[in-house]
Amino acid sequence: MLRWLRKQPKFEDMLATWEILLEENSTSTQTNAIFSLKLLREHTDHQQTPRSLCIATNPFHRYRSWLTFKNIAASEPSVWGELEIYTLQ
Questions:
Q1: Phi and psi at residue 87, in whole multiples of 5°?
Q2: Which end of the chain is more exposed for a tag (fewer CB within 10 A), N or C?
Q3: 84/89 Cα distance (integer angstroms)
């Protein structure tokens, strides 16, 4: 997805301002969410909770990914607070 994303002119401006973290060890949607949120936590100042997260995945997988990330983040409200989760369309 990252290679595809970088080839899309409509995302060029956003990519210039976003920090992209790539999780490559998961074997399921749930482990992808767990590992990705862990990766995000490791790359974030622990004094400041990230406000948003954008998931890049294929259209078939989009809703399931969003719901899984939302549920896992909600299970740790003291860590994630009101994290907004988006998907690219």
A1: -125, 145
A2: C
A3: 16
Cβ burial of 16 (10 Å; 0-12, 13-18, 19+) is exposed
CB 48 within 8 A of CB 9: no
Check if the beta carbon of residue 28 is closer than 8 Å to that of residue 59. no
> In angstroms, rounded to a whole number, what is the distance separating the alpha carbons of residues 81 and 71?
12
The closest of 55, 4, 67 to 30, measured between CA atoms, is 67
Question: What pTM, to 2 d.p., does this model score?
Answer: 0.77
Note the pLDDT tens digit of each residue in 77-88: 888 888 899 997
